Amino acid sequence: MKAPLPPVRLVPPQWVRTTTASGAFSDMTNPAQPAPTPPAPTPEPTAADTRPPALPATGPAGSASSEPAAEPLFRLLPPPPPEQFAPERSEDGRLTLGNEELELDGELFGWRELEGVDVRPVRWLLAVLLGAFALSVFLLGYLQFWLRSVPAALGMGVGVALLAWGLRGTNRWRLHRPGREARHFAFSGPARSWQHLAQEANRRIRQRHQEAAATAAYYLQLADYQATPSSAETE
């Protein structure tokens, strides 16, 4: 007869959590407990978050106000003050460029009255022809023994003087005025200095016209802005 076997005790299996990241070996004794969720990543601070908090708008007594600040109204800027010009004179004193006017041989012309100025060196064609003709005639008479030395020399001297005066010519100034005929003036001397004065006169004319246009536009816009009713009045 066989001996009876000792009693056997059954132990249920238990799963122990390990250090693996997948969590495959976890405690299975409580399967109803949900798996823990990983913590949400902390957002990095942006430029908008680093700004200092806006201070509440305060009234005249320093109390906080919940009303938004009113938008600035449209403002018209007045035109800049007119440019000041230094006076300039020609070498012979017949022409003067002032701050507000042009003086030519004692006549005054305002810068706003003129459209422009041009200067052009011209030659006296009649004097050139007379001088060349006199020089050639007296020289031919002297060479042909028709004239003596003294009359021939005097005649050739007059011819040379007429020829030099005609070649030197003059500088013709022409003033252009709106709706009127142009005025002409003749000045002697080197053309370079007169051309410089003409360029300066044209610059002053353009500057004065631009200033007048800017002033007129400013007052026109100001009148339109004042005539337009505001939004508060229309409501």
What does this structure look like?
The chain contains 4 helices and 9 strands, in the order βββββββααββαα. The protein is an alpha+beta fold and 235 residues long. The termini are far apart.
Short description:
The protein is of the alpha+beta class.
What are the main properties of this structure?
235 residues, 4 helices, disordered C terminus, 4-stranded antiparallel beta sheet, alpha+beta, 3-stranded antiparallel beta sheet, 9 strands
Instruction: Give the class from helix and strand content and strand pairing.
Output: alpha+beta
The average pLDDT score comes to: 77
- Number of distinct helices: 4
From the alpha-carbon coordinates, what is the Rg to the nearest angstrom? 51 Å
Distance between the first and last residues' Cα: 118 Å
User: What is the ordering of alpha helices and beta strands?
Assistant: EEEEEEEHHEEHH
The biggest beta sheet is recorded as:
4 strands, antiparallel
Measured by DSSP, the beta-strand proportion falls in: 15-25%
Give the SSE map.
Blueprint: E1 57-58, E2 64-65, E3 88-89, E4 95-97, E5 101-104, E6 107-110, E7 116-122, H1 125-143, H2 149-168, E8 170-176, E9 183-187, H3 191-227, H4 231-234
Helix pairs in contact: 1-2
